[in-house]
Amino acid sequence: MSKRPGFPVQLDRVTAAAPKRPAPRSLGEPAAIPQPIAAPRSAPVRAPTTGLGLDSQAVRTRMVDKLRAQGVCDEAVLQAMNQVPRHQFVESALVNQAYEDTSLPIGWGQTISKPNVVARMIELLRAGRTDKLGRVLEIGTGCGYQAAVLSLVAQEVYSIERLRGLHEKAREHLRAFRLPNVHLIFGDGMVGFPKGAPYAGIISAAGGEQVPQPWLDQLAVGGRLVAPTVTAQGQQALVVIERTSTGFLREVLEAVHFVPLKSGVA
Length: 266
Ligand code: SAH
Prior knowledge:
Elements: E1 9-10, H1 11-17, H2 56-69, H3 75-83, E2 104-107, E3 110-112, H4 115-126, E4 133-139, H5 145-151, E5 154-161, H6 164-175, E6 182-186, E7 199-204, H7 213-217, E8 219-230, E9 236-243, E10 248-255
Parallel strand pairs: 4-5, 4-7, 5-6, 7-8
Antiparallel strand pairs: 1-6, 2-3, 8-9, 9-10
Helix pairs in contact: 2-3
This protein binds S-adenosyl-L-homocysteine.
Residues 106, 110-113, 139-140, 142-143, 145-146, 160-163, 166, 188-190, 205-206, 259, 261-263 line the site of S-adenosyl-L-homocysteine (SAH).
């Protein structure tokens, strides 16, 4: 077992402890042509052998054009999705599908949401604001892709994952990008992450029977929560909750299919 740094893990600290590696790329630089991700000690270099390498920016731009055509209009979200190389968050066998509007397996029986759903949820979280969101809590780090997108539209991102294998994988994926505002936590997101509260936004990538009370407690007044939740009709749908000075406003939107929110860690 590799030693696990204290929580929340600050990615730059993790990187600082790692052996010398090539200079990090910045997600903040527009149109950066993705290079193969810096090789972690034990894993093979995931060189883009599929032709997605040098022209992945063009493929990504097409994905973003499609998102726009599908109705996503938050420019900050579109720009973030244009910058994060989604193909570097999936297994090499799936690289060719990385920019299609499809969910993809990420191991441990989990999936990365399709780009349209990622964009839609973050747009709902931001609710039309033009400046950056404050602190955001993501439940379900998975492969780390959505955390990377969030890091470009929010000031701080706390992302919690209950499966140690995926938590480690996300850390590996994100290390090369050096995102000092992303904090990865291994733990049960059902209880939220009180240390980072209150949050301007809470976003869940896993769907539960109901929205756990700690999430509501940890939401700032004026903050928004977006989570797939089972509705009164017994179907999973996107639920948006806004905390006002007097209570919570709840809105049920379209039906969705997310992996289940589970308690405990594994
Ligand atoms: N945002 C992710 C999507 C991951 S899928 C990405 O970009 O890849 C949803 C994730 O939620 C899974 O990895 C699953 O293990 C995790 N999950 C489910 N219940 C959880 C809980 N209680 N706490 C933390 N993570 C949880």
